[in-house]
Amino acid sequence: MTQIKEKRFFVLEADKKNKNHRVFTEQLLKSWCASEKLKEAGYDIECAIDDGEYDYDFIKDEFNVGRITKLEMEGKKLFATCQFKTEGEFPYLNEINTEEGFLDKCAITPKGKGAVKNQIVQEDYELYGFNLIWAHESAFAEEVPAETAKA
């Protein structure tokens, strides 16, 4: 029996401006949590580490390293439970499955497309899936005070 690699990630906080000056509303995030796509098959996770060009539409199969099996809100914070593939020829799959602490250096970010009005992402946002990126590159990462980051 194959062991499943699973990790829960903080994704983003609702109604809070991210580093790209965008705000995702609580209503939008709750719609993701209740979506039929999530219930039926989950959302795909695309490995976008070291891929400077991941702003294309949809998820590329050759970079699909897993899926989101659960999205849940805790207060205004969105968390994702992720299951990662254990076999195949995918970017960073070996590191995901064998390198202790590798996923702790990563973040999960939404990948989709929709209108933005007054810096607020609108309800027409179509969520394609999620990207796995380095945590320090995430527009949603919580700010860490400089003194703490050096410790």
Features:
single chain; 151 residues; alpha+beta; six-stranded mixed β-sheet; two-stranded antiparallel ribbon; 4 helices; globular; disordered C terminus
Largest sheet: 6 strands, mixed
Secondary-structure class: alpha+beta
What Rg do the Cα atoms give? 15 Å
Portion in helices: 10-25%
Architecture overview:
With about 150 residues, the chain is an alpha+beta fold. The protein has one domain (about 5-135). It is built from four helices and eight strands, in the order βααβββαββββα. The chain has helices at about 25-35, 35-40, 95-100, 145-150, and strands spanning about 5-15, 45, 65-75, 75-85, 105-115, 115, 120, 125-135. The strands form two sheets. The protein has a six-stranded mixed sheet. The protein has a two-stranded antiparallel ribbon with strand order 6-7. β3 (about 65-75) and β4 (about 75-85) form a beta hairpin. Residues about 145-150 have low confidence and may be disordered.
